[in-house]
Design a protein that fits this description.
385 residues; alpha+beta; 10 helices; 52% helix; 19% strand; elongated
Length: 385
C-alpha cells in the first residue's frame, strides 16, 4: 500500500518537529549550527549539507558542513567567499533550487578536493531583515528527473520551515553567548574591585617600607634589616589576602550552568583560541557539592593552562566521569612533559602545589603522570556528597 500525499506531509512535519527539538537542546552557537546542518541533511535525505554564517568582509565567520569527512574538509582548503549562488542567498534572501548547480551561470567552480555536486537546494536563514546565514543541500538521494532537480517544492517548503526555526535557535544561542560574555565582564569587574580593596593598601605600605630600607642600607644597616623584615611580613599578608579574595569568588557560570556546561564552554573557547586541539567528554556525572565543583573547575583550568602555555601540546583531552558517588577529572596532553623527580623544583611553576592544595581541600586525590617528551596526564578524584 503506497502512502498518500497527506501521509508524506505528516511524516515530513514530524521530522521537522524532531529537528526543531534537537536544535533547542543546544545553547552554544557552534552546536546549534552543527545540529541545523545535520537535521537538514537527514530531513531531506541529501548527500551533503552546509551552513555559512557571513562576516562583514565578504567571507564567512563560521562554516559548518555535514557529509564531508574531516580529511576531505582539510584538503578543500580555505572557506569559500560570498560569491555566486551563495551571494544570491545572502544578499537577495531568495531560495535556490537547481537541477545542476554546475550549469548555473553564477557557478564559479570549486577546489579540486571538493566533492562533485549536481542538484542543489539553498535557503537563507533570516531573522526579520537580517540574514543570519545560508543553508544549502546537494545531491538528493533519489532518481533525478531528466534535466531536473531531485529536490521538490515540498522539500523547499520543509527546508524553509526548518530555516525559520533555525533562525530562532541561532538568535537565542547568540543571545545566550552574549549574556555569558556580560556575566564574565561583570565578574571581572567585581574581581578587580575585590583585589583593589583587599590588596592595594598593603602593596602601598610594602613599597614605602622597601624604599625606607633602601635609604637606610648604607647609614644604618640595623634599621634597614628591621625594615626588610617588615617587607617580608607585609608581602606574606598581601599574598594571603590576594589568595582569599580569589578563592571566595566562585565563578558565576558555575552557579548558573553547572560544572559540565561551564567546562565545556571554557574548553570550546580554548579550542578556538589555540592551535592545539582541545576536546571534552563527560559521562554519567551526578551533581557534586559546590566546593568540589569549584575545585574541579580550578584544577582543570590550571592543567589546561600548563598544557597550552608551557607544554607546547598539540592535543589536550579532558574527560570528566562518574566514579561511585564522586567524579574523576583527567587532563591528558601530548606536550613536552617533565621529569617527575623534579616536581619539587617545578611544582610551583607548573601550578602543581595549587592543584594539590585545592584537591586536598575537598578531600580528593591528585595524581600526575609525566615524562620528558611523553606528555602529561593530571587526574583528580573527588568523593562527591
Amino acid at each position: 500500500m503506497t502512502k498518500g500525499p497527506g501521509a508524506e506531509r505528516g511524516a515530513g512535519l514530524s521530522a521537522v518537529s524532531g529537528a526543531i527539538l534537537a536544535m533547542s537542546r543546544h545553547l552554544e552557537v557552534r552546536d546549534v549550527l552543527k545540529t541545523i546542518v545535520a537535521s537538514a541533511r537527514e530531513l531531506l535525505d541529501a548527500e551533503y549539507a552546509a551552513l555559512g554564517v557571513p562576516d562583514d568582509h565578504g567571507g564567512f565567520a563560521q562554516f559548518v558542513v555535514d557529509g564531508v569527512s574531516e580529511e576531505q574538509w582539510k584538503a578543500i582548503g580555505p572557506l569559500p567567499r560570498q560569491h555566486g549562488i551563495l551571494a544570491a542567498m545572502l544578499q537577495e534572501a531568495t531560495p535556490q533550487r537547481l537541477g545542476d548547480v554546475r550549469q548555473d551561470p553564477r557557478f564559479e567552480g570549486w577546489p579540486g578536493a571538493h566533492p562533485d555536486m549536481s542538484d542543489f537546494l539553498g535557503m537563507p536563514v533570516a531573522d526579520g531583515d537580517e540574514i543570519l546565514g545560508a543553508l544549502f543541500l546537494a545531491n538528493k538521494r533519489c532518481p533525478k528527473p531528466a534535466g531536473g532537480c531531485g529536490f521538490t517544492e515540498e522539500d523547499e517548503a520543509l527546508l524553509g520551515m526548518l530555516a525559520q526555526h533555525a533562525a530562532i535557535a541561532l538568535t537565542n544561542a547568540r543571545l545566550y553567548e552574549r549574556s555569558r560574555e556580560l556575566t564574565i565582564a561583570g565578574e571581572r569587574a567585581r574581581l578587580a574591585h575585590e583585589l583593589h580593596d583587599a590588596v592595594s593598601q598593603k602593596l602601598f605600605s610594602l613599597r614605602l617600607t622597601a624604599q625606607a630600607a633602601t635609604a637606610l642600607v648604607d647609614r644604618d644597616p640595623a634599621r634597614a634589616k628591621d625594615e626588610l623584615q617588615q617587607v617580608t611580613r607585609l608581602a606574606a599578608e598581601a599574598a594571603d589576602e590576594l589568595r582569599a579574595a580569589v578563592v571566595e569568588l566562585r565563578p558565576a557560570a558555575l552557579d548558573e550552568d553547572g560544572l559540565i556546561a561551564t567546562l565545556r564552554t571554557q574548553i570550546q573557547v580554548l579550542d578556538r583560541a589555540h592551535s592545539a586541539k582541545v576536546t571534552f567528554a563527560a559521562h554519567g556525572l551526578r551533581a557534586l557539592p559546590a566546593a568540589q565543583e569549584e575545585a574541579v573547575l580550578r584544577v582543570a583550568q590550571e592543567a589546561l593552562h600548563n598544557a597550552l602555555r608551557h607544554a607546547d601540546a598539540q592535543r589536550v583531552d579532558v574527560t570528566l566521569v562518574r566514579r561511585g558517588q564522586g567524579a574523576v577529572l583527567r587532563i591528558a596532553d601530548d606536550g613536552r612533559g617533565f621529569d617527575p623527580g623534579a616536581v619539587r623544583r617545578a611544582g610551583r611553576h607548573l601550578g602543581l602545589v595549587s592543584m594539590r592544595d585545592r584537591t586536598n581541600g575537598v578531600g580528593g586525590t591528585l595524581t600526575v603522570e609525566s615524562a620528558p617528551g611523553k606528555g602529561t596526564a593530571v587526574e583528580m578524584e573527588v568523593p562527591g556528597g
